[in-house]
Amino acid sequence: MTDASPNTSTSGDAALHGTSRPEASEHGTAESETSWRSSVAPSTATDLENLLGTGVGAAQEQLGRNGGFLPFALVVENDGEVRLVAVTPSDAPAGSDADFDADSMISDLRELLKQNRDDFRAAAVVCDITLLEDDTDAIHVATEHRDGAVFSAVLPYTMDTDSGELIFGQLAADSDEPTVWVD
To answer: What per-residue confidence (pLDDT) applies to 93?
Structure first.
């Protein structure tokens, strides 16, 4: 399961861009994604895929523009509108090289989503992580629907040191647990 952990790592440009990445350890395959889609209602799959695509797109844009991004959330409101949800960055723990505490931000986002879950039908938390087994960074999007469906994915990326261009890998399914519609 890819999740925010107490151990965060930072990229070389963390001080400049304020990026801190929770670490991750496992990710799945496109086959997992196919079987996932067939196991949920079409409207649920549409909501979660919309959040996944919007989350990946917004994260890619911020990476290209700023070299990193703060954790954020997206929701599909009951009327179908997609909205951005953000929290104020917390200071990084003492002794950390990070400019902010990404784990705390992710926890705050999840708590905010849980408290307001009656106002929307699906949610996603998007964060910048480190894939330990691949020794690379990745965009992580964890989506959840009020009907109980959960789907997460990771999109690895690297920065070409010669051109400064971002190079994205293959989107891969990931395992995750519900965090919004749980008591």
So the answer is: 65
Q: How far apart are the C-alpha atoms of 121 and 74, rounded to whole Å? A: 11
The DSSP symbol for 23 reads E
Q: Specify the amino acid at residue 132.
A: L
What tokens does 105 get? 């931000």
Q: Which of 126, 170, 183 is nearest to 2 (CA)?
A: 126
Output the pTM of the full model. 0.79
> Residue 106: is it exposed, middle or buried by C-beta count within 10 angstroms (0-12/13-18/19+)?
buried
- From the number of C-beta atoms within 10 Å of its C-beta (0-12, 13-18, 19+), residue 91 rates as exposed
User: Who has greater pLDDT, 5 or 58?
Assistant: 58
Residue 152 token pair: 């997460």
- Enumerate the β-bridge partners of residue 24: 131
Q: What are phi and psi of 80, to 5 degrees?
A: 95, -10
What gap in Å lies between CA 126 and CA 124, rounded to an integer? 6
DSSP secondary structure letters along 72-118:
EEEEEETTS-EEEE--PPPBPPTT-S-SB-HHHHHHHHHHHHHHTGG
CA–CA separation, 119 and 136 (whole Å): 36
The count of residues in the chain is 183
- Give per-residue pLDDT as tens, 105-162: 999 999 999 999 999 999 999 999 999 988 899 999 999 999 999 999 999 999 888 9
- The SS3 of residue 146 is coil
